Amino acid sequence: MLITPSQDVGCETASVREDPFYAGLPRRRARGKDYDALVVETIAALRRRWGASLLVHFEDFASRNSYRLLARYREEVGFQTATQTRKPK
């Protein structure tokens, strides 16, 4: 099973957060440990639900997060990027 989770981690632009039509979380973007904790919690929940059949598609992560997260989860869950697909050993 391929899962493409979408996570709303907030928005830095106050005018966007205050717009009544803004559908995202009306708070500043999660960063650092808070951001990492959200990803850890999400991956853990997905693994509990789908187990070893889980394949997570990482897309549109900021560069500072994407390589670090892919390196962390490379051996734990399957992952897919635009250039390669790999399942855990």
Could you please describe the fold and organization of this structure?
- The chain is α/β, with parallel strands linked by helices.
- The protein has one domain (2-86): Rossmann fold (3-Layer(aba) Sandwich).
- It is built from 3 helices and 4 strands; from the N terminus they run βααβαββ.
- A 4-stranded mixed sheet has the order 1-2-3-4, with no helix packed on it.
- The longest helix has 19 residues, at 32-50.
- It is elongated, with a radius of gyration of 15 Å.
The third-level CATH topology is: Rossmann fold
Residue share in helix:
25-40%
Structural class: alpha/beta
Low-confidence stretches: 82-89
Mean pLDDT: 78
Helix and strand run: EHHEHEE
Query: What is the number of E strands?
Result: 4
Assembly state: single chain
Tell me the strand order in the biggest sheet. Answer: 1-2-3-4
Beta content comes to 5-15%
- CA gyration radius, whole angstroms: 15 Å
Largest sheet: 4 strands, mixed
The gross shape turns out to be: elongated
- When the domains are counted, the total is 1
Q: At the fourth CATH level, what is the homologous superfamily? A: Malic enzyme, N-terminal domain
| Number of separate helices | 3
CATH architecture: 3-Layer(aba) Sandwich
Identify the CATH class: Alpha Beta
Q: Ends: how far apart?
A: 16 Å
